[in-house]
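Listing S7. Sequence submitted for prediction.
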Amino acid sequence: MKGYAMLRIGETGWIEKERPACGPIDAICRPLAVAICTSDVHTVYEGAIGDRHNMILGHECCAEVVEVGSEVKDFKPGDKVLVPAITPDWNSLEAQAGFSMHSGGMLAGWKFSNFKDGVFGEYFHVNDADGNLALLPEGMSLADACMLSDMVPTGFHAAEQADVQFGDTVLVIGIGPVGLMAVAGANLRGASRIIAVGTRPVCVAAAKQYGATDFISYKNGSISEQVMAMTGGKGVDRVCMAGGTVATFEEAVKAVKPGGRIGNVNYLGSGEFVTIPRVEWGAGMGHKVISGGLMPGGRLRMEKLATLITSGRLDVSPMSTHVFNGWEHVDEALQLMRAKPADLIKPVVIID
């Protein structure tokens, strides 16, 4: 089979590989549509997870099942399915402890284009199919289905990590695709004011649609100083971090109130240490909590989030700003995500 792969740090291309084998509880799928993630850019061009050679890229797609293992009960060849970017091993001790995304080790629930070939190939392997696949709802577009792989669950996890409550004032740092879903998640959880950090007009327009009430730009100076000016010196109750660098934590800690919480889902692709300001952290005693987490994967998560779309509670269609048809556009889509032109939120490639 063919796959679009990371050949080495900084280089990609099409390669030939053996079709993956199907274990007794697993499935082999073929993509119906794939989406490019900033994580793919970090992986290839920053070497964020280390060097990878001839590893097929991609962790966002929807698909058709072509083969299932002998012990798979709920899926069969021909089923069209949602595929989460994170596919835990559900019988692991980590999953039993409530941290399925770290099954087998830290971040080891993230298997596609990390520990094994990803979804940018003619076929791909899904471990624990009954626990990780979900049926594609009838009538859902393939582009919308791709948003359920990663963007929706990751952005929502920022709001979960920040523990957004009714009436909270929330700061969302970064309003790319994940940040937009953090805005939507905070809004659905009852935030009364959502301050979004971002300037690209297409993202600002989408953030307004998802519930953002105020906007600031890091280009205009310190994020925390702008937040303090907007809140009468009080700061915010919660911070959702979906962008920035290791240095951005300093701004988040300064902006959040004592007793507040910072939820980070930003993939820190470079840097050695996170910067936390000692004084504004209350010299270590300010009850300012920082919680960072890889999004939960699995079937239940996919099914529940899918109902938000099918019920009309969440419209993800504005996210897919660039839609292509055919495998030959995967590299073009990756380069778009790398360059991030002003009119881009998310590129999707329809395969079938």
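Caption to Listing S7: primary sequence and predicted structure tokens for the chain studied. The mean pLDDT is 96. Residues 151-162 form the longest helix (12 residues).
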